[in-house]
Amino acid sequence: MRDDRRTRTILGLLLLTALTLVVLSIRGGGEGARTGAQTIFGPIQSAAAAVVRPIHDFVTSIGSLGSKDAQIADLQHRNDDLVSQLRTSEYARNRAKELDDLLRVSSEGQYRFVPAQVIAFGPAQGFAWAITIDAGTADGIKIDQNVINGQGLVGRVVRVTSSTATVALLVDATATVGARIESTMEVGLLNGTGDSLSMEFQLLDPFAPVVVGQRLVSYGTSGGTFVPGIPLGTVTAVTGTPGQLNRMATVAPFVDVSNLDVVGVITERPRVNPRDSILAPASKAPTAGASASPSAPSAPSATPTAPAPFSSPTPGDGATPNPKAS
Amino acid sequence: MSWLRVLLGVALIVTALLLQLTVLPFLNLPGAVPDLVAVTVIAIAAVAGPVRGAVIGFIAGVLIDLAPPAIGLIGVSALVLVIVGYVTGLVAFKRDRAPVVLVGVAGLLASGSVLVSAAVAGIVGDPHVSWDRVPVVVVTELVYSMMLAAFVVPAVAWLWIRVAPPTTRYDTVRS
User: Fold this and answer.
1) Structural domain boundaries, residue A139
2) Does the residue A309 lie in any domain?
3) What percent of chain A has pLDDT over 70?
4) How wide is the angle at C-alpha A194 spanned by C-alphas A188 and A196, nearest 5°?
5) Is the preceding omega at residue B69 within 30 degrees of 0, hence cis?
6) Contact flag A33-B28 (C-beta cutoff 8 Å)
7) Residue A173 — pLDDT band, cuts 50, 70, 90?
8) What's the CATH code, domain B3-163?
9) For an interface test with A, which of B52, B74, B168 has the most A Cβ atoms less than 10 Å from its Cβ?
């Protein structure tokens, strides 16, 4: 019992220090410490991701194969070598397909982007949605640049070191992006809720029509953070009546955050606003839950004309199809 | 506490943190991401006692709040893990502790830490907290932490004794 006082002192000091950190952080401090930590941890995370991701993709592709057909799972045991070869090439194909999706978005939106790999994911119990990517100032990345993938807007760069960058995701509770309804051009604000599957959209004009199934693209002002015309999500529910001030639409984001792998950081904005030309035609509205599963060969949000250049032997005409140019 | 143990503690925390950020989220498990760092703090506190547990918890918490891609408030995890480390040391730092009890304690404390950190973040006004997700995260965290603890707690205990033979294991504060 003689140590009780010392125990209490140490515990009290630790708690007090932690609280001080919280207060400092609320007042906007700690950014330097975080950048420092990122300089140290970033390269380690890159290295860890380089080792872990191929193994992970290999394992998941085996998992999806087994669930589809039990017979194939039996054969696997006998054909280990063959299967491993198959999986490796499928992994490469998936990566290529994600880059293709990204290229389609970029060529139709006339962005210039730097491709990057997701190397770390923020712990979900902190309730903040953020990722680290393996591109930094050395690749031309700056704070506030937009991050996209083949499905739409992923998020925004909030911190950057020479080789890595931290991206706050669109679904994070602090994220807000100006959005426009594809068909009616009505504008509003799309807010993240912290739930990875639903966001909230509030129209600026409370009388403007909004219906389930409408799709949103980023509004983007010339001086603002977000680039115009990036696909955001689909309206899945509308609460409130027209005219009501708190009228709200629930939006399912196009980007599936649980499947992020290859992303692109937009380093140069488009010269002309692409508006909704990146979205697939309305008849083939992409479903929010449809993620690029390892075995699905076709992009869920691809335009009818877009897949052709990827499968044709001449990849040079990849930028030509732009069926919905407004 | 020998320097080897200090080094071991920090090395374990850093390894757990790296695994938690670069490997575990990509498993796409339903609900929470398994909180390997909290389980490691609990495992260390169970063999090192309440005060050292609190110190290790503090170090782990600061690292979580600083390591990319952290964007929330700095210090919340530190605050929570200090408490987790201390309580684990109080409850589990006994010679005759049963492994099953330890696994249960780890599960309860790790999932409780989610609740506490949500509460702390909510009180200080962190906009990231979404209470809708709290029940799912707490429940899945309970399951994952117990599964992790079943492996991590014995492994850490083994390493801890291996690195420096036990001398005064009941002396919680003298170093």
Assistant:
1) 37-278
2) no
3) 67
4) 90
5) yes
6) no
7) confident
8) 1.10.1760
9) B74
Instruction: With a cut of 60, say whether residue A306 has pLDDT above it.
Output: no
Select from A17, A132, A258 the Cβ nearest to the Cβ of B28: A258
How is residue B5 written in tokens? 């143990």
Positive or negative torsion for Cα B152, B154, B158, B164: positive
A295 three-state secondary structure: coil
As a whole number of angstroms, the distance between CA A281 and CA A289 comes to 18
- Residue B139 in tokens: 């429940």
Q: What is the mean pLDDT of residues B35-44?
A: 93
Q: The CATH number of the domain where A101 resides is what?
A: 2.40.10.350
Q: How far is A132 from chain B (nearest CA, A)?
A: 5
CB within 8 Å of B173: residues ≥ 6 apart: A3, A6, A7, A10, B49, B51
* A322: in domain: no
pLDDT tens digits, one per residue of A115-169: 898 988 886 566 788 999 999 999 999 999 999 888 889 999 999 999 999 999 9
Whether this model's pTM surpasses 0.80: no
* DSSP code at position A180: E
Query: B32 contacts in A (CB within 8 Å)?
Result: 124-125
CA atoms within 13 A on the CB side of A190: 32
The answer to whether the CB of B142 falls within 8 A of the CB of B107 is yes
At B5-25, the pLDDT tens digits run 889 999 999 999 998 888 888
